């Protein structure tokens, strides 16, 4: 529905466009003058009001449904499915202003930013599209009339180009477009032919493409300068590109015709603004002037921006102004659209470049955060997601700046040494690429004759050094480097990857394709219902189409053999989206097939397991009925829906977070999340658990809808995973809404139909996986209830132990065994039945620490008694006699296990008249001491010899007398760490040797 209300020019003009759930008010951008807002407004009104186009809001700059580009780099990206013919357009004609980022690939403007006045990492693309409606003639006329009649550009300053054809592509010269421009009144000398580089448009290595015609503007316009078009002059620039999408480039490089003809246009908003405002540099327009002023406002110690370029900008200050202004816009937009620096190294490099500029040129910490406020204030009314996500933008900028400072601190010492050795390195911004130091060190240690394609690829693949970084290394070491060789090597690597993917599955996959086996219909996996609160998973009829033993195709399989079945249809879920595949059984008359795992091989669902029979064989084309394991599936569904609730709850509690990965099994769910800020506290964990339990108790429906990639962009508050590629069609949106709480994200998994079906939710573990990532594990349903019950029992067991400590303080070994047993229960595995809530676990750990301290304190207080009691017991029972009837004692002091420090001299003093050797073991550390009465020492037997040749040799430790004492009378073995698993055999060996030695030598 379109409702247009026109009011006199001096008043507001309100344009209300309703597409699905989006409403757009354009009047707030209108102004009498030629401000950027008014220019954007006129463009949209021209196409929407006057030429029957529909408004489509800008897509995010992260391409969620396109693996071929790192960022959305043109307005056409969100319409790719239409161009390919996989989707039907909602409207035949649309128009918008699209946010774009170009920092890599074919369209890489990053290196030029700041050096000239018109290249940007982030820019807005004004566009109009025709999906199988108008084509070349109307597209050219619409563009020409807008520029001449609406924006009033002088004709004599405009040039147009067209595609002159390319025999390698097999695409002929576009004479039709040339003729159209002539009919619109443009003279022949201003209609210029160009080749594929300039006039054949492609959005990536593959995908929709076609010849294009461009409109260029001459800022001078004094003479005909046709010969300088496309020569990179700052005063003769392209402003509008009109692409005639007729072809599709396949993975093999071949170009084929698309089913329908489309028009895709893009006019650089910043360049258009500079023309209409009479500026040569985009930075002199109000798209940037507010930011340049803001930079100076926050850095008053520096001169104001003066718009100097090249040699005139001798200290690169104005270039730094421009770079900072440009990058501030790009970073703010990317972060607001959900791109995470941790997942996008190009964005992280831009961020670190901004931090470096802020530190070295503008001398201002936190400058980017402050500038993001100005960006949001300027662009927020046009792109509301900026205003909505400003706190998230700030949180991530703060986090990344802290990382930058810590990396800089760590690298500074190494870098200082390297720059002294090679002053050329002073020109390198090392913090942008922390691995630069390691890469440089490796090459400089044994410099090669040149940086070959193989070495360049290693630097790229192993160290993450891009072409620019490699060029800096080559320059610093005076090594030859050809960037084109790196590009060629990267292309070869992509080809090798594609081939390896094909080869890894070639036996099974190609067998299936070559035989014309249809892909498995698995939509039945979403077919289940409820009856009186019980989930019903109906079995379905199926037929065996293919049998594999290993990866070899066989016609039949015998009983008890492990094999793989390909069926015509299935209701089993195959592993995807972090959720494990189903288990179950296929009934073939009297026989059965036990399914242990399910995988998806390019649409063929592989059922792996064992054929059970009383003697029959299973053959192709056998019909059967397939039943999944109800309890297994329902447990997975509970855990998967809970994973979504956990993700949403984390965002409410912690703000800027990003899912890294998830695992959903029948026993538990595991969710790894990046948190950009303080670590998750136990109080926050409890709050998250309470929030989810509240949603479970409120019995809210879990709604699932299916959309395509265009409809996906129409949702607000949609949680998407950066780096995840969603399909063009059949995207399932899973949504739970409870008051202010909203969980809404695409997911191919299976889910419960109501939150009440989760029954219970309990977080059982949280651990840190590095600087930002936190791993959370939780259980649901009956397992969560059991975890709470078991946790209560364990807590009561610890309380009982605490109450009885004083009564058993004389039995430290027994207490130690009890404490150790309880600790093992706390160190559970997620597959165990005996998991307990995290809050209870931490509480139990705290109690055990107090109990251990209580035991240790009591032991310390009664240390003399412990040793005296044990040594007196030893004297009564362990004093032995040698062949010469000489008494001696060799004893392991068992009470030492409970002591932090064991003064062995207290034990040996109790036996001054006989040889004594005592060993202690505390905190995984063994010590020993021996004493020999003066009247018993001989050349063969004394304290030092006894210790060195027996106990010290077993434990491979040094033996020496205490300082100032006679080693023949008293000797200590230096403390030595011994793992508890090795302790018992070493102890027995040392005692045996000590006894044998004294028996033989006294």
From TrEMBL:
- Gene3D superfamilies noted in UniProt: 2.40.30.130, Bira Bifunctional Protein, Domain 2 (3.30.930.10), Threonyl-trna Synthetase, Chain A, domain 2 (3.30.980.10)
What superkingdom does the record give?
Eukaryota
Q: What is its EC number?
A: 6.1.1.7
Q: Name one GO biological process term.
A: alanyl-tRNA aminoacylation
Pfam families, per the entry: tRNA-synt_2c, tRNA_SAD
Similarity comment text for this entry: Belongs to the class-II aminoacyl-tRNA synthetase family. Alax-L subfamily.
> In its keyword annotation, does this UniProt entry include Nucleotide-binding?
yes
- Residues holding Zn(2+): 640, 644, 747, 751
Keyword list, A-Z? Aminoacyl-tRNA synthetase, ATP-binding, Ligase, Metal-binding, Nucleotide-binding, Protein biosynthesis, RNA-binding, tRNA-binding, Zinc
| Protein name listed in UniProt | Alanine--tRNA ligase
Q: What is the role of the protein in this entry?
A: Catalyzes the attachment of alanine to tRNA(Ala) in a two-step reaction: alanine is first activated by ATP to form Ala-AMP and then transferred to the acceptor end of tRNA(Ala). Also edits incorrectly charged tRNA(Ala) via its editing domain.
Coiled-coil regions listed in the entry: none
């Amino acid at each position: 529905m379109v409702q247009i209300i026109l009011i006199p020019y001096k008043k507001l003009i309100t344009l209300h466009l309703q597409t699905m759930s989006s409403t757009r008010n354009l009047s707030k951008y209108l102004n009498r003058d030629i401000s950027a807002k008014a220019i954007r407004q006129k463009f949209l009104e021209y196409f929407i009001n006057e030429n029957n186009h529909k408004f489509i809001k800008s897509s995010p700059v992260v391409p969620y449904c396109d693996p071929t580009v790192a960022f959305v780099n043109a307005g056409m990206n969100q319409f790719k499915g239409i161009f390919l013919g996989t989707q039907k357009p909602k409207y035949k004609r649309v128009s918008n202003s699209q946010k774009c980022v170009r920092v890599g690939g074919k369209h890489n403007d990053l290196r030029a930013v700041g050096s000239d006045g018109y290249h940007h990492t982030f820019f807005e693309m004004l566009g109009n599209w025709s999906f199988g409606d108008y084509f070349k003639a109307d597209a050219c006329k619409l563009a020409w009339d807008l520029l001449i009649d609406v924006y009033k550009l002088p004709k004599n300053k405009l040039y147009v180009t067209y595609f002159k054809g390319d025999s390698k592509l097999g695409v002929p010269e576009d004479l039709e477009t040339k003729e159209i421009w002539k009919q619109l009144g443009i003279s022949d000398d201003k209609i210029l032919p160009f080749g594929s580089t300039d006039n054949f448009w492609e959005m990536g290595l593959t995908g929709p493409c076609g010849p294009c015609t461009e409109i260029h503007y001459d800022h001078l316009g004094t003479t005909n300068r046709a010969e300088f078009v496309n020569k990179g002059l700052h005063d003769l620039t392209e402003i509008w590109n009109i692409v005639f999408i007729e072809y599709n480039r396949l993975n093999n490089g071949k170009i084929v015709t698309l089913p329908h003809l489309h028009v895709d246009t893009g006019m650089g908003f910043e360049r258009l603004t500079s023309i209409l405002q009479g500026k040569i540099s985009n930075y002199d327009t109000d798209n940037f002037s507010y930011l340049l002023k803001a930079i100076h406002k926050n850095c008053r110690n520096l001169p104001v921006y003066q718009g100097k370029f090249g040699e005139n900008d001798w200290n690169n200050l104005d270039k730094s102004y421009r770079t900072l202004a440009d990058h501030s816009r790009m970073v703010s937009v990317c972060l607001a659209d959900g791109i995470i620096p941790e997942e996008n190294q190009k964005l992280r490099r831009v961020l670190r470049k901004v931090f470096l500029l802020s530190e070295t040129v503008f001398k201002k910490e936190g400058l980017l955060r402050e500038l993001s406020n100005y960006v949001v204030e300027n662009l927020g009314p046009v792109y509301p997601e900026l205003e909505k996500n400003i706190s998230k933008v700030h949180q991530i900028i703060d986090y990344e700046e802290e990382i930058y400072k810590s990396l800089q601190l760590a690298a500074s010492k190494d870098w200082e040494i390297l720059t002294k050795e090679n002053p050329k390195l002073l020109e390198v911004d090392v913090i942008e690429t922390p691995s630069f130091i390691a890469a440089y060190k490796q090459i400089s240690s044994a410099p090669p004759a040149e940086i070959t394609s193989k070495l360049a690829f290693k630097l790229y693949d192993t160290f993450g050094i891009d072409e620019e970084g490699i060029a800096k290394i080559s320059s610093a070491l005076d090594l030859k480097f050809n960037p084109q060789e790196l590009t060629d090597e990267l292309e070869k690597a992509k080809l090798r990857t594609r081939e390896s993917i094909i080869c890894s599955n070639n036996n099974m996959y190609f067998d299936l394709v070559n035989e014309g086996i249809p892909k498995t219909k698995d939509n039945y996996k979403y077919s289940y219902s409820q009856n009186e609160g019980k989930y019903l998973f109906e079995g379905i009829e199926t037929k065996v189409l293919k049998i594999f033993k290993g990866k070899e195709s066989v016609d039949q399989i015998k009983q008890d053999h492990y094999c793989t079945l390909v069926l015509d249809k299935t209701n089993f879920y195959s592993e995807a989206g972090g959720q494990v595949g189903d288990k179950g059984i296929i009934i073939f008359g009297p026989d059965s097939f036990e399914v242990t795992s399910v995988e998806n091989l390019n649409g063929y669902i592989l059922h792996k397991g064992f054929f059970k029979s009383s003697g029959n064989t299973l053959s192709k084309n056998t019909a059967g009925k397939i039943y999944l394991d109800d309890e297994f599936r329902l447990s997975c569904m509970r855990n998967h829906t809970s994973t979504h609730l956990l993700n949403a709850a984390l965002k409410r509690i912690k703000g800027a977070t990003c899912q890294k990965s998830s695992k959903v099994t029948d026993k538990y769910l595991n969710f790894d999340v990046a948190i950009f800020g303080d670590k998750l506290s136990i109080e926050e964990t409890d709050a998250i658990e309470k929030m989810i339990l509240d949603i479970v108790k409120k019995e809210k429906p879990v709604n699932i809808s299916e959309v395509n990639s265009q409809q996906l962009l129409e949702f607000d508050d949609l949680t998407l995973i950066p780096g995840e590629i969603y399909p063009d069609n059949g995207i399932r949106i899973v949504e739970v809404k409870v008051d202010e709480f909203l969980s809404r994200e695409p997911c191919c998994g299976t889910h419960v139909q109501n939150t009440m079906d989760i029954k219970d939710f309990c977080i059982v573990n949280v651990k840190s996986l590095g600087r930002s990532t936190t791993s959370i594990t939780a259980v649901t349903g009956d397992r969560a209830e059991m975890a709470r019950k078991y946790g209560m029992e364990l807590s009561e067991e610890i309380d009982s132990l605490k109450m009885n400590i004083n009564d058993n303080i004389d039995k430290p070994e027994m207490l130690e065994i009890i404490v150790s047993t309880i600790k093992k229960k706390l160190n559970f595995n997620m597959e165990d039945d005996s998991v307990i809530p995290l809050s209870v676990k931490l509480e139990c750990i705290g109690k055990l620490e107090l109990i251990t301290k209580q035991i240790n304190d009591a032991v310390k207080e009664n240390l003399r008694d412990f040793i005296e009691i044990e040594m007196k017991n030893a004297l009564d029972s362990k004093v032995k006699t040698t062949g010469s009837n000489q008494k001696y004692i060799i004893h392991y002091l068992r009470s030492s296990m409970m002591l932090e420090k064991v003064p062995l001299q207290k034990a040996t003093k109790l036996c001054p008249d006989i040889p004594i050797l005592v060993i202690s073991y505390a905190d995984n550390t063994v010590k020993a001491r021996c004493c020999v009465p003066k009247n018993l020492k001989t050349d063969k037997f004394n304290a030092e010899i006894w210790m060195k040749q027996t106990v010290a040799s077993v434990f491979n430790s040094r033996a020496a007398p205490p300082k100032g004492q006679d080693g023949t009378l008293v000797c200590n073995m230096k403390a030595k760490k011994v793992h508890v698993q090795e302790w018992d055999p070493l102890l027995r060996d040392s005692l045996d040797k000590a006894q044998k030695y004294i028996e033989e030598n006294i």
